[in-house]
Amino acid sequence: MSDEIFKVFILEDMPVDLELVKRQVRKYHPSVLFAVARDRAEFEEKVRSFQPDVVLSDYNLPDMNGLEALLYVREHLDSTPFVFITGILNDEEKVAEAILTGASGYLLKENLRNLPDLMGQVIAQNRENMEQREQDWERRRQVQIKLRKTIARLRQLNLPDSDQIALSLQEVADELG
């Protein structure tokens, strides 16, 4: 584990559960900085400015549910891993909905001792996803450059319909960008 500060945002309204989660996170990464919210207002105020490496969230909170928090994170911090740590997400439909909505994982509070391993898996998967995104972006950029070069050459040739072909190629290049 690196010496870098690992930033964890926890959305939890129960003080005892909050301390238990913190203890398990420290087992994953001892150099951790926590930000905590107990309700919607605190969460929305703090999470974007904190820029966490991971968000850990209970499912039931006083004035919102975990899916609302997850959607907020996906909207504002798209690539940030989001893990539910909850006592009630043992309903298969809710688990499926959470995963399909973009959660990186979930853990029942009764299995909190597994949090360090789950965080390792989630962070590794997120790193792979980010690397894949960067590779995809670079590939699209290279294709776009090739298309623009082809458009420039085509326009120099002054062939019949070259303007129409160049326009079509330009639309493809724009869609990639």
- The overall pLDDT, averaged over residues, is 87
Order of helical and strand elements = EHEHEEEHEHEHH
The helix-and-strand class reads: alpha/beta
What is the overall shape?
A: elongated
The strands making up the biggest β-sheet line up spatially as: 2-1-3-6-7
Number of strands: 7
Uncertain parts: none
Specify the number of helices: 6
The gyration radius over C-alpha positions equals: 22 Å
Structure description:
With 177 residues, the protein is α/β, with parallel strands linked by helices. Helices cover 59% and strands 16% of the residues. The chain is built from 6 helices and 7 strands, in the order E-H-E-H-E-E-E-H-E-H-E-H-H. It has helices at 15-28, 40-50, 66-76, 92-101, 115-157, 162-176, and strands spanning 6-11, 32-37, 54-57, 60-61, 64-65, 82-86, 105-108. The strands form 2 sheets. It has a 5-stranded parallel beta sheet, with helices on both faces. Strand 6, helix 4 (92-101) and strand 7 (105-108) form a beta-alpha-beta unit. Helix 1 (15-28) crosses helix 5 and helix 5 runs antiparallel to helix 6 (162-176). The protein is elongated.
